Amino acid sequence: MEPRTNFMGLDLALCPDVYEPSDDSELMVEAARKYSFGKVLDLGCATGIFGIASAQKKEVSSVVCADLNPAAVELAKKNAVLNGVEKKISFIQTDLFSAFSSSSKPKEKFDVIGFNPPYLPTTPAEKVHGTLNLAFDGGKSGRKITDKFLSGFEKHLNSGGILILLQSSLSGVEKTTVVLEKKGFAVGKFASRRFFFEEIAVLVARKRPEDEKKKPRARRDLNPGPTT
Fold first, then answer.
1. Confidence bin at 129 (pLDDT 50/70/90)
2. Strand partners, 41
3. d(CA 191, CA 172)
4. Are 43 and 96 in contact (CB under 8 A)?
């Protein structure tokens, strides 16, 4: 019989190959319950808790739970059923935004993107065996996945959308804040938790209105085709 737990009021099945909810997950659920609306992406979904907590809100129309780990995608499906929100959620295996960036169709966009990336600085000797390593391994600096994510996430965020991002002092909360501010986002710390070796924090970022206004308007076609 598979292990089960109740985490912040959510009934969850667990799997040894998938990251089990912890203190960082608790902060992400709190943020989902406060900020999620419209179309939500739970990136790196693991058990699916951010997406499930979002789907329980009436302000949320749809959710996508996505993860590179196929075991996580399957587990999130089970947990969506356990919590009665499976009709509101779709599931996909993807490496960050690769599945949402097809050259044959427009980039898929979301009102809220929630991401709890692997943020632990990791040497080759510290890697965890199997697919569970995907949840922990942030590379030598702890920023390997975070920096890759930050390089292009805004292409998938709707105007007025919100980024909810978990970060750790071990890999540079302030550095992430600076990157987001340079991209024109107003950044705030929603919640944090301090331990003897690190502080984890949820950053909430929204595009500043003045930067939205700077976006070029769509140009009218100066040479339209023949009319009928």
1. low
2. 64, 113
3. 16
4. yes
Is there a contact between 85 and 32 (Cβ–Cβ < 8 Å)? no
Higher pLDDT, 96 or 218: 96
Q: How far is residue 54's CA from residue 108's CA, in Å, rounded to a whole number? A: 19
Q: What is the DSSP string of 37-97?
A: -EEEEEET-TTTHHHHHHHTSTTEEEEEEEES-HHHHHHHHHHHHHTT-GGGEEEEE-STT
| Residue 151: inside a domain | yes
Query: Which CA distances in Å does 75 have to 54, 87, 104, 176?
Result: 17, 16, 30, 30
Per DSSP, 162 falls in state E
CA 128 remoteness from chain centre: 22
Which tens digit of pLDDT belongs to each residue from 40-69? 999 999 999 999 999 999 999 999 999 999
213 in helix, strand or coil?
helix
Residue 201 sits in a domain whose CATH number is: 3.40.50.150
Residue 226 lies in a domain: no
- Give the chain's mean pLDDT: 86
For residues 106 and 109, give the distance between their C-alpha atoms in angstroms, rounded to a whole number: 9
**DSSP letters along 170-202, please?**
TT-HHHHHHHHHHTTEEEEEEEEEE-SS-EEEE
Query: For the chain, what's the residue count?
Result: 228
Is 2 domain-assigned? Answer: no
**Domain encompassing residue 17:** 10-213
Kindly state whether residue 113 falls inside one of the protein's structural domains: yes
